[in-house]
Amino acid sequence: MNEGALQEVKTLFEKMPPQVIMKAFDDVDNTDLAIFLLMLDRTTAADVNQEESNEIQEILSHSAGDTLAKEHAKDALSVQAQQLFAQFPFERQLRIAEEIVATEMVDKQQAAQIWNDIVEKMKDALENTLFFGDGVANLTKLLEQVEIAEQNRLVAALGRTKPGLADTVSKQLLDFDDLAELPDEAILTLLQVLETNTLALALHNAPAAMQDRFFENMSEAQIDAVEAASAQLTFEEKQIGETARESVVNLVRKFAEKGLLKIQ
Length: 264
Description:
Distance between the termini: 58 Å
Number of strands: 0
Strand content: under 5%
Oligomer: single chain
Helix content: over 70%
Shape: elongated
Structural class: mainly alpha
Number of helices: 17
Radius of gyration: 27 Å
Order of helices and strands: HHHHHHHHHHHHHHHHH
């Protein structure tokens, strides 16, 4: 495989999001796909002279982002082949695996045609796909101007059908670290209802800025109580710190919905 062909594939892999790459393979025959993966895996100095090989390896050393950059240059496309294979559904992996095992050699013209056909499909997929990016991030952006009561209603509805998605969206809308931006009045409202142990769990290993945000609104006695509770946390309790932080965030959202505090 010459330098131009490798450069073309390199550029496509750099430009194409994984979803678009996989879309390009939707209607590719499993036999052809197996051969393409084998060619990616075996594209080293075998088919080019040493001078071309050195140039190609230099190109490949920058071929697929930080992950592949850490690999040895000669293995770059091999790693790409492995990553592609890993993204296919199990049943298709099985079909491709059967073809790979059965393919020990292939006619060079046939291989070149398969390579060119798949590269064209990748280029077509890139040209004809409008990619919106991360769906959760997009939804979060749209919800930023929605009243918090409606946000909560939507998250609750998502939770009934897709709990994992609901949790992710909720965290994107308001994360524990975001509470550092709450006004003093809101912090004081929270401190009136949060139990000492819950607060100790939530603040344990939290950034210093977050701890300071709460401590500066607490009395010396409250600070001493939280610090004492934190010092007595067991290993098992420390493992549920995230749960405590989520409960604090949920409380903030509920209070904001009822107008008991404001989120800036």
